[in-house]
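Bench log, entry 3. Co-assembly request; chain sequences pasted below exactly as received.
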Amino acid sequence: MSWVLVTGGAGFIGSNFLYSLRRRQPGAHIINLDLLTYAGNPENLTGFQGDSRYILVRGDVADRELVQDLFSRYPITEVVHFAAESHVDRSILDPGVFVRTNVVGTFTLLEAARQAWKNPAGPEAPRFLHVSTDEVYGSLGPLDPPVTEAAPYAPRSPYAASKASADFLGRAYFHTYQLPVLITNCSNNYGPYQFPEKLIPFALCQALEGKPIPIYGQGANIRDWLFVEDHCQALLQVLEQGRVGETYNIGGRQEVPNLELVRRLLGLLGEMRPDLGDLNRLITLVPDRPGHDWRYALNIGKIESRLGWRPRVGLEEGLRRTIAWYLGHEDWLDRVRSQAYRSFLMQQYGTGVVG
Ligand code: NAD
Ligand code: DAU
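Structure output for the full assembly:
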C-alpha cells in the first residue's frame, strides 16, 4: 500500500500531478503538505473532495516538528517534493523566502525522511523524488548543445541558486546516507492551473483584458516548453522505475524565442476569440529581467532510452488546450488575482502594463 507525501500539491504542477497520481494509483493514500502561499490554491483540487485517501495538511516544509510528525504519523513510502517559491522575478525582488523554502525546506524534508528511516520501528526508506529545474545548468548560447545530466551546475538567479542548493542536498543525502533520492530537472511547464505570473498565463490574462503584454528585452531569449501533463507522466515513471541516486532531465524538445511564443499564443487565442481583435498590438517590449538567462535546452536522451518516456503533446496542441482551459475558467482567474497579486504586478511592471 503506497502512502505518498506530496509537497506543494496545491500549486500548478503539484495539482496536475495529484490528478495523474490518483488516476495511476486509485488506492494510494496521498498526504498533500502545502503552505497555501499566494501560488497554492485548494480550489485546484476540488476533484479530491470526498476522497477518503486524500489529506491536505496546511503547513510549511521548513517546519521541522510538523514534517517529523507527518513521518511518524503515516507510513510514508514515497515523497514527491514540489513545494517551492518558483517565480524568478519574485526571487530578484525578495530572495530570502526562496532560501528558506527551497533550501531549508528541502533540507528539513530530507532530514525528516532520514530520521524516520533510521528509527528501527519506522518504515523502509521512502523513495524521495525532488522536482527541480533546468535553470540550475545556467544560461546557454545559441549554438550550445542541449545539456545532459552530467553538465556542471551554473545557476545565475536567486531562484536557480536556491534550487541548485536543494539538488546538492538531495545528492548528498543519497551519497552519504543512501536515502533513495531521485532528482528531475525540468524545462518550462505550461497548462491548466498555472498561476498568472508566468509568461503564458500572464500574457493570456493581459490579452483577455486588452492590456499590454510585456516582453523582456527584445523577446529573443529561448525557453523549452513542456505541457504539464507530459511532465507529470515523466515524474510517475521516474518515481516508479527510476534508479535511485540518479538525475533525469525532462524537456519538451520545443525551443522557442519568447516573442515568437507569444505571437503563436495570441494567434491561437485570436482564432478562438475573434472578438478580441488584433492581439499583436498588445505586445510591448519592456526593460530586460536582471541577469536574464539567454537560453535553456535539455538533452532528454537518458529518460527516453532508460524509461521509455517522451513528450507527447506538441506545442500547438498544448497551447490550444491551455487557452481552452483558461477560457473555461475565467472565474478561477478572477479569484486568484488578489490585491496582493495586483501589488506584485505594479511593483514588477508599473502602471504602463498594469493600467
Ligand atoms: P507553484 O509556485 O505553482 O506552486 C508551489 C506550491 O508550493 C504552492 O502550492 C505553494 O503554496 C507551495 N509552497 C510554497 N512554499 C511552501 C512552503 N514553505 N511549504 C509548503 N508549501 C509551500 O510552482 P510550480 O510551477 O507548480 O513548480 C513546482 C515545482 O516544480 C517547484 O519546485 C519548481 O521549482 C519546479 N519546476 C517548475 C517548473 C515550471 O515551469 N513551473 C519547471 C521546472 C521545475
Ligand atoms: O525553466 C524552468 C523554469 O521555468 C522553472 O524552474 C520556473 O519555476 C518557472 O517559473 C520558469 O522560469 P522562467 O523564468 O523561464 O519563466 P517565466 O514564465 O517567468 O518566463 C519565461 C520567459 O519569458 C523568460 O525568458 C522571461 C520572459 N518573460 C516573462 C514574463 C513573466 C517576459 O518576457 N515577460 C514577462 O512578463
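The pocket of nicotinamide-adenine-dinucleotide (ligand 1) is lined by residues 7-8, 10-14, 33-37, 39-40, 60-62, 82-86, 101, 105, 131, 133, 163, 186, 188-189, 195 (CB under 6 Å). The radius of gyration is 20 Å.
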